Each structure stands twice: as structure tokens, then as C-alpha cells.
Amino acid sequence: MDFKNLIAELGQAARRASHTLARLSAEQRNQALIHCADAIEADQVELLAANRKDLDAGRQRGLSDAMLDRLELDPGRIEAMAGGLRAIAELPDPLEKVLDEWTRPNGLRIQRVAVPIGVIGVIYESRPNVTADAAGLCLKSGNAVILRGGSEAVHSNRAILSALQRGLGLAGLDTNTVQLVPSQDREAVGALLQAHQWLDLVIPRGGKRLVERVQTDARVPILAHLDGNNHLYIHPSADPAMAVEVVANAKMRRPGICGALETLLIDKDADAMVPALVKKMTELGCELRGDAELCGMNKRFKPAGDEDWMTEYLAPVLAVRLVDDPQAALEHIARYGSGHTDGIIADAPDLAESFLAQLDSAIAVHNASTQFADGGEFGFGAEIGIATGRLHARGPVGVEQLTTFQYRVFGSGQIRP
Asked: pTM to 2 decimals?
């Protein structure tokens, strides 16, 4: 297959669709989202059947329980996909907002107005709900999108795309507003990353190897979603019962998502809560890996090596370390963290505020689970990913983060001297 030509055909179709989409009213885009949600619900039987094929293939390939959890669809998750599209439709229109306005001494009136980016490529792994989330967010923000999902979810992604395109057609929109690269060949990804004449932005969502490849090979601007090596620090002022519950949720609610806690830092003056923490986590089936001091305190800890502090487990494994004070916790996070989601559990508001201000993380939390690192929980309806860079967008990427701006200059015949 000539992948360069394949991506060019997809890109040309997407560019045409983006021009049409940018002219639509907010109501037209919202109605299309509702039609897409209805189509996903109507196709539940087909979606579940397609997903079973992916799950069966995944088990044969030896995918981990965490990966299978990411991959699995059930009636509740299908309903959540449809609900996410409806939630996106209810969001304020991100387009044509006047972000700023001023008048120059010569009478020129200048506006900075939110407009679509254009054509967005999304490369992702495992989770088929990303197909619907990415399509919905791009549609709401006036962007056409070319999706490239992982091979482990190929049947699910194609079934979801079919429903989405049927919904777009019922709304009278160009079905090429949302497209899926039809090949799982790695060369197709390479061609997509080189298609700078057709794509305006690429968003990778997946493991470290995927993101590194995109960063290395792309000739298109990228919005990176890196791994979630997330931390919580327990200060001596923390309420012990609350701390245990927050840590348990942050690690074990869904261990395989990027917002899951991977390393827990406990102040040495708060070590009295270690027994209760160990009891709770072992009851939940979590393996604990600790430093030498913790291993000496409790036989439930397995020895942690330097590699453990750098690992995004995406599994029921938690690395735990005792630290001397908040500054030592901050230094550990700065050395080993990925800049995704980190925070503090403390009943000391001034200290917590100072701690958060010193974190170089996209999301900084106080007395809350790291699993709130999610666009839906932020009120964005859904997200394409968590951006861990510093330019254009940071944290959950929702509809507002998928816009750029245009300067509009209004005059009355002014000429420049």
C-alpha cells in the first residue's frame, strides 16, 4: 500500500470537511453530536460484538489485566461514551469568542477571536472510547480529525467510527469530518506524522514509546501526552483516615489509567499511619514496594529499587518511600516525576498552597485523588488526553484547548504613514 497517498487522500478530504465545519453554527455542531450519541447507543449490540473480538485477540496476545480493562466495552461504558458526546454538546461554544479587544490611537479596533485549528490527527492506543471522545471534542471545536487507533482495538474503533459517521450523515455533515486510518501498518503512522500539508496538529495518546516516536518523527506540531508517574505526599498534619482512603482510590480505583497514583511519599513524622495504609492496600490486592526503612517496619513491603521510582506501573503496584519533609518530597517528584499529576495530603492550607506552587506538574492536587486528572471530572465533557508540556495547552485537553485564534482588525479607511 502507498501510505503517503493514502494519508494524502484522507488529508484532502479532512481539509475540505474542516472548511465546511468552520462555517457551521454552534447549533448545527451540537445537533451532530446528539445524532452521533444516538447512533452509538443504537449500535450497542454491534459495538459489544466488535469489542469481544478485540478482547479475545488481546487475551491470546497476553495483554495485561490493566490493558484489557482499558480495552473493554460494556453497556455502561457505551452509555458513558454517548453521554460524553451529549455533555460536549452542552458545553459553551468555544468558537467566535472575543478573547480580547482594544482600540488603537488611530481608531483601529482589534479583536482576538477563537477559531478552529483545522485538521487534527490523533494517534492512540487501547481505549476505544478515545475514538468517540476525540471525534466529539474535535467536532465541537470545529476541527476535522483523522484517527489512528491501536491494533488491539481495531474492531471496536471501526464499529464506533461507523456509528459516528452515520450520526454525522443524519445531521447533514460531511462524514469525512471524522476519519480513521484504515491500516494498522506502522508505516501509516509514519506517513501521518509527515503530512504537514494536511494536518495542523498531531496529538499522541499512549505509552512512552508511542509518544517518543511521534516526537522524533513528526513534521507536524504535536501536543504530547506523556506517561503518568504520579505522586502524593502525606504530611504529618493529614487526617490519617482521609489519607488512607484518598491513597486507596488514587491507586486502586482503576490502576491502569494515566491518572493512577504510582509513588506515595510519606513524611517520617507521619509513619504512624503506615500500618493502616498497608492493611487497606493489601486488602485491595495492591503490591507494595518500599524503601529499606519501610521494609524493616512491615514485611508486606517488597524492596524497591531506583527503577521503581521511575515506573508508571499501570497495575496494582505502589512504590512507597519515607521522606524527611515537604522539601524532600518536592525534590523526589522533581527527579522522578513525569509532570502529569502530583499533590499533597495535609491539613495545613498555607503549606499545601506553597507545595502546589512548587510542583512542576500539569495538575497539582490537595487532599484529593489523582484520578480526578480527567477532562470529564474537570467539566470538559471529555478529553483527548492530558498534555504534560508547557505550550498551547496543559492538563486535560478539551474543546477550548483545540482552538487557536485570529486577529480581526476593523478600520474606517486608515492608512499607515
From this structure: 0.84
